[in-house]
Amino acid sequence: MKPSKLREFTDEELVRRERDLVEQLFRPRFQHATGQLDNPLSLRNIRRDIARIKTILRDRELSQKGKIPSPKK
Predict the structure, then answer these.
(1) Cα distance between residue 15 and residue 20, in whole Å
(2) 3-65 domain in CATH 1.10.287.310?
(3) In this predicted structure, what is the pLDDT of residue 70?
(4) Domains of the chain: which residue ranges?
(5) Which tens digits make up the pLDDT trace of 1-48?
(6) How far apart are CA 45 and CA 16, in angstroms?
(7) What is the pLDDT at residue 63?
(8) How many CA atoms lie within 13 A of 73 on its CB side?
């Protein structure tokens, strides 16, 4: 998902989405380990989406503390 779309969500929605993605990552990991995964790029995409969400949440946390300015939209 694009970062611009993720920035439209509230913090609670982002945390919920992150939790869902972590759960979603569970099954393909085992399939990859046993050689049954059809699309190995799905693992990378899920991990990147999780990283994007964590980055946005951290950015918001720091901007609330006044350490860095909010990104321009």
Answers:
(1) 9
(2) yes
(3) 63
(4) 3-65
(5) 788 888 899 999 999 999 999 998 888 888 888 888 888 888 999 999
(6) 18
(7) 87
(8) 6
Give DSSP secondary structure letters for 2-70: -HHHHTTS-HHHHHHHHHHHHHHHHHHHHHHHHT--S-THHHHHHHHHHHHHHHHHHHHHHHHHTSSPP
Question: What whole-number distance in Å separates Cα of residue 73 and Cα of residue 4?
Answer: 8
> Measured in Å, how far apart are the chain's first and last C-alpha atoms?
16
pTM metric for this prediction: 0.78
Cα–Cα distance measured from residue 38 to residue 41, given in angstroms and rounded to the nearest whole number: 9
Contact 50, 3 (CB under 8 A): no
Angle (nearest 5°) at CA 62 between 12 and 73? 75
Decide: helix, strand or coil at residue 1: coil
Residue 69 dihedral angles phi and psi, to the nearest 5° = -75, 155
